[in-house]
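Researcher: Here's the sequence for the chain we discussed earlier.
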Amino acid sequence: MRAKEVREMSLEKAEETLEDAREAFFKLRFQFATGQLPDTSKLRTARREIARIATVVREMERAQEVSK
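Model: Thanks. This is the structure I predict for it:
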């Protein structure tokens, strides 16, 4: 998911997407630990997606704080 796509979402939807991404990363880590993950590059991709979404969510939160 691109940052542009996340910026087009509402704050609540972006936070929900972040939680979903974290849950998916947890499942990938579990698969990796049990030896069931054939493509380990998915871990790196998932981590970067979480960071990207979290950054945009924080930007949205700060924008709301400034506007108050």
